[in-house]
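Teaching assistant's notes for section 4

Start the section by putting this record on the projector. Ask students to predict, before seeing the second block, whether MCE family protein will look compact or extended. Collect guesses on the board.
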Amino acid sequence: MNDEHAHSVAIGGFIIGALLIALVTVLFVLGSGLGRDRDRVVMVFDGSIKGLSIGAPVALRGVEIGQVTNINLILDSDQFNLIMLVEAEISHDSIQYPGDSADNMMDLMIDRGLRAQLNLQSLLTGLLYVQLDFHPDTPVHLSRIDSEYTQIPTIPTGLEKFTRQIESLDIAQIATDLQDIAAGINQVVNQEAFRELPTELGNTLSSIQDLTGELHGTVAATRPRLDGLLREAETLVGSAGTELPRLSGILEQNLTTLAAAAGAFEQTMQEIDGLVSSDSATTYQLNKALRELALAGRSLQLLAKTLEEQPESLLRGKSGDRP
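Reveal the predicted structure now:
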């Protein structure tokens, strides 16, 4: 009877142990992500990844969607430099995709600007994590690696850019330039002219103060005259405002009179033009009178010449007229 009881207890313990093992296995599988729908991705970083370890979070805009599963160091034979290859798993349970399928969704997000970069988890620990976000304005740089997983393009962080700029600076040349600047400043400071500069500045300030006092006195002396000029100007402006309408009326009357005189003058000129026209009767009579005057003039000239040569002809007549 005791043997049967012991046998039953052993069987019960075996069953309970098997159940516990099965439960632990299920919990392990669920906890490790096995059995879930996941995407494996790979990222290539060309800088230091110190602080990034396997199991580090992968976050999309701050929301954890996966973790780092593997880190490898690869020698790039084309450019002969080292690159850091980081593999990660992305859980589909953390992202709600439109529609019923997540096929090719990662490729679509990469086309829309999905990029990966390293960020600090904590300043105290220095641990890193992979931050995913959309940067559509950045170019796509993909490394030629032998991997079956989708490659997410990477971009440097602001700290990495700053570090690279610092590393590209010629520190030795900058130090030399600073030494030259310091030497130049020291040389200027030790010159006698620089030492006398405070005294000269003091004299200049005193001169400025004296000039300011003179300006105040001049302004105070000329202010009454300026006030008088302003009052006279105001009076002149007021008088002009009163006289301008009257002067405008007189000017308008004169312009009217001048216009009438111009019309009369134009009419007179037209009449004169009619009188002196080549085909007018007045011109014909004038021309006839002028011809007769010319004939009379020639007759008088001939008479004067005859009297000059033969004065006696006035009493006797011309010699040609004798019998």
